[in-house]
Amino acid sequence: MHGLVIILFAIAFGFTASGITANLYRLIANKPESLPGKVVYAGVMVLAGPSVLFGNAAKSFRAKKCSSIAFWLAAAVAGYWSFALGLFVLNLYVAH
Length: 96
Hints:
Elements: H1 2-28, H2 35-62, H3 68-95
Pfam families: DUF6949
Transmembrane segments: 39-58, 70-94
Keywords: Membrane, Transmembrane, Transmembrane helix
């Protein structure tokens, strides 16, 4: 039971960190045009990816532009990505 709680906490923490990063980036930056801007965008998307992926999948699913299988596949990838991100951040927290 303890392991399940840690897994769920890591997913929630990763998805929350992803959402905060995505929204801060949207507030601060415009669409990248230059090479350094694109490199920074790629780096930010490593952290913001789960939130952006799930948001785009949900928007497409509501507009009937993708199947339910594609939506759930994107949701599973976003969940696993959130889990990995959450474990990384939790590992940093426990190490200090």
